Amino acid sequence: MIGAIGLLKAGILGILLAILMILYIGRSKKDYLAVISAVLLSIPGIMWGNTDFMPVVFLSSAFIAVVLGKEISIFYTLILYIYVNSLGFMGKKEGIFFLVTGLLISLLIENVKNKRLFFYFLLIILSADTILLLISCNLSITVFVKTHPAVMIVLTAGSVILGCMAGDYYRKKVTIQVTNSANDVIETNLDNLLNDNFELYRLLKASDKLYHHSEMIGVISESAALAAGLNGTLAKAGGFYHEIGRLKGKDYVSTGVAIAKEYQLPESIINIIQSHNLKLDKPTSPEGAVVMFTVSLVAAVEYFQSSKSHEESIPRLMKKFTENLFAMRLEKDSLANCNLTVNQYIRLKEFYMDYFGNEEE
C-alpha cells in the first residue's frame, strides 16, 4: 500500500518537476499544458518505482518525446531520474532501468507517423531492456521467464505505445485548437505589421535588397497559402519577416528571433523565422511550412538563373527540384509538427509546380 507520506513526496516531486520543465522550455504557454500532462502521467509510475509496475512512468517519457521533442525529453528523463533516486522512489536496479530506457525513448521515439520505423525503434528499446533485466537475473533465461522482470518488458512496451498515442493525439487535437485560437486573436493585427505605421516594417523597407527579397517571399507564400486553403496573411507576414535578422549581425536566424521578440511579433511568426531553413526548429504551423518551401524554391530558381551549366530549361529543372524537395521534407519529418494535411500538401505542391514550372514564364 502507498502511504500518505509517499503520496505527499510524489506530489512535491511532480510540482518541482513541472516548475523546472517550464523554466527550461521557456516557450509559449501552449507547451505548459503538455508539461503538466506529462507530470500527471508520470505520478503512477513514480509511486510504483520499486515494483514491477514502474515502467508505467514511460507513458510520460514517450508523451514528452512526441509532443516536445528529443532535447526536452532527455532533460525530463535526467531530472526525473535524479528526483526519484534522491527521494527513494526507486532502487539502484530500477533506477538504471529507468534511466537507460528513458534516454532511449527520448532519442528514438520522436515521431509516430512512420509506423514501421516506430516499431523498429520500439524493438531496440525492448531489446536493451531485456538485456538489462537478464543481467539482473544473472543471465538466467529460466529465472527471467518465471519471475517478474518479464512483466516489466510487457508494461514498457504498452506504456511506450500508449504514451506515443497520447502524444500524437495531443499534438493533433490540443495543439491545433490552441494554435487556431491564437491565430484568431492575432489575425486582425497581422495586417498592421505590413504597412508603414509599423516601425520594423519601415526598417526593413529601408534596406532595398532585403526588402525586395522579403516582399517576394511574402507574396509567393501568401498565394501558395491561399491556394491550399490556409491563412494567406500569416504566410505573407512570416515570409516578409523571415530574414529580418539580416538587418543586424551574421547569425541572422537567432538575431531575427531576438528582433521579433523586441517588436512583439506573434509566436507564429517567430516560429517561421526559426524554422524557414530548419536551423533552429521545425515549422509548427502549415503557414510555416509554406514559407519554408517558398524560401527553398526561390533560392533554387535564383541558382539556376545564375548558373549556365545546365542543359534543361529552368521550368523543367524547377519541376524536378520541387518534386524532390517535397519528397525530402516528408521523408526527413520536416513537416512532423506543422499539422499540414495530405490535401494541403498536395495542393501546395501543385501550386509550386505551376508557379515555378510553367514553361511560358
TrEMBL record:
It holds the Pfam family HD. It comes from the Bacteria. The chain crosses the membrane at residues 7-26, 32-49, 56-83, 95-112, 119-144, 150-170. InterPro entries: HD_domain, HDIG_dom, PgpH_phosphodiesterase. Residues 211-291 form the HD domain. The keyword ATP-binding does not apply. Signal peptide: none annotated. The keyword Cytoplasm does not apply. Keywords: Membrane, Transmembrane, Transmembrane helix. NCBIfam families: HDIG. This is HD domain-containing protein.
